[in-house]
Amino acid sequence: MHRTHPAHLGQPTGSAELAMLDVYMPMMKSSAIISAGRLGLFEALVDGPLTAEELAGKIASSLRGTSTLVDFLVAIGYLEKRGDAFANTASTQRWFTSAGQVDYTPGLLWTHESWSMMANLAETIRKGEPEKTLWEAMVEKPHLGPLFSSYMGAFAADLGPDLLRFVPVQPGYRRLLDLGGSHGLHSIRFCRQYPQLDALIVDMPSALTKTGPEIEKAGLSGRIALSPGTLQESDWGAPADLVFYLSVAHNHSADENRAAIRQIGESMNPGGLLVIHEYLAETSLDAMNAAFRLTLLLETGTQTHRHEDYCAWLTAAGFSAIERIDLEPREKGSLILARR
Ligand SMILES: C[S@@+](CC[C@H](N)C(=O)[O-])C[C@H]1O[C@@H](n2cnc3c(N)ncnc32)[C@H](O)[C@@H]1O
Asked: Which of 26, 96, 129, 290 qualifies as a FRET site for 213, CA 20 to 30 Å off?
């Protein structure tokens, strides 16, 4: 993800003379950056510049291949040349290495997988829904679930400080219900910050493969439990004071969200707080939102929803004091807080 929202995002990059550049260059740029992530090239440069020979040795690749790749990465501003050596640019170091605030390398690994799924976009558009949802693909290919959860974990690491800042946890709150909680990072962060909280994470088994060990590593096994299964079928346990529905609504239809929010309302203690994180569909879609909707059509057959939709579902479920917080930068999406 980008820190800023450049005006050219999504605009044609091809020249009037050769419009095919608009197809060819994004493909090459994307596949070069993904390949660098898969080879561990950016991480190999985390401690400083290396010559092409040194770098090739470190990533166990041919000198010819490595040199061709780094030349392109220099040309597109991901690496810089320093004498005979190559170094990460500040932005690459920040976004795609362990030295950065959040390492989005899992996003590169995930995009490698999603590349082949994207090949079926035309068929999905013809049909109006995916042949197979991402969740079905995860059952068939078990390596996809943990990869997706790690990618979501990178977003969660970025979003975590905003959540702590904007979500008011009352001293009397005891029970956190993290619906679609995946990697568990949000529950871990809140349980660490608020010692009075216990949490239950509900998600599909494919999303939870690494969550137990992460909770154990955080020393929170006694306070955070897992409930594997779909939201629609699994046990949500005792009534909650704080409910997270973070980046889950875009994986559901309007009817499913209306039903889920009604069930959340019914399963909460009075005075409780529901926190929704989403990428809201605005009346005029920007390129990123429109691209995300195309991805959702292909992956899950769902879509982003409008702020008005959430307000209607929340009001019908008995929530009040609905508050919308647009995060900065805007690529981080929005929070909707509602009280029961
Ligand atoms: C985009 S990820 C967000 C993960 C996490 N809440 C976060 O904010 O980082 C959506 C999560 O919802 C889960 N999910 C989607 N549909 C679900 C369903 N019907 N039942 C349970 N979990 C579901 C997915 O497995 C995935 O972990």
From this structure: 96
Q: Are 311 and 322 in contact (CB under 8 A)?
A: yes
- Distance between CA atoms of 156 and 185, rounded to whole angstroms? 7
19-62 pLDDT, tens digit each: 899 899 999 999 999 999 999 999 999 999 999 999 999 999 99
pLDDT, one tens digit per residue, over 233-276 is 998 999 999 999 999 999 999 999 999 999 999 999 999 999 99
Contact (Cβ atoms closer than 8 angstroms) between residue 199 and residue 223: yes
Domains and CATH numbers, the chain: 1-99 (1.10.10.10), 122-339 (3.40.50.150)
Taking the C-alpha atoms of residue 189 and residue 160, their distance in angstroms, rounded to an integer, is: 7
Probe target for ligand 1 pocket from 134, 176, 234, 251, with the most ligand atoms within 8 Å of CB? 251
Say how far apart CA 255 and CA 7 lie, in whole Å.
35
Q: What pLDDT is stored for residue 18 in this prediction? A: 83
Closest residue to atom 5 of ligand 1, CA basis: 181
Ligand 1 centroid vs 276 CA: distance in angstroms? 12
**pTM of the predicted model as reported, rounded to 2 decimal places:** 0.93
Rounded distance, CA 289 to CA 333, Å? 10
**Which ligand 1 atom minimizes the distance to the CA of 256?**
19
Residue with tokens 């690496």: 79
Sign of CA dihedral 316, 319, 324, 327: negative
Residues near ligand 1 (Cβ within 6 A): 152, 155-156, 180-182, 203-204, 207, 230-232, 246-248, 251, 277
